[in-house]
């Protein structure tokens, strides 16, 4: 009778955000009501339907020129430097994966920041550069100190 998609929709209360054409239908059926607990602070839309993250991602990707920038920064960190990787032309999910892979590669701690840059503890520029060059086609530019 009903497809798996309909069943999933009634379970989760929203349509896959990648299927933009079905969004108006979803609203008309009012299925948001089952999953409206948390609203996005920016657009007041239920988080399941919020587009803010996709918009931020699109803007970030549009700003990337294809060159990845690598820097070592100690400013305001009490001498404990971090290696920053900026302008990575990857979607959010892929950035998360890349961040955890780089942490393993470098054997150090690190984090992915909201603006899309990755920070790894210590001066890991050489190992990051070598690893990225063997796995991705992007030119890498060292910036700053
Ligand atoms: Zn939002």
From TrEMBL:
An example Gene Ontology molecular-function term: mRNA binding
GO biological process, one term: regulation of translation
PROSITE patterns from the UniProt entry: SUI1
Entry keywords, A to Z: Initiation factor, Protein biosynthesis, Translation regulation
SUI1 domain mapped to chain residues: 74-136
PANTHER family: DENSITY-REGULATED PROTEIN, DENSITY-REGULATED PROTEIN HOMOLOG
Family, as annotated: Belongs to the SUI1 family.
Protein name (Swiss-Prot/TrEMBL): Translation initiation factor 1
Species of origin: Allopseudospirillum japonicum
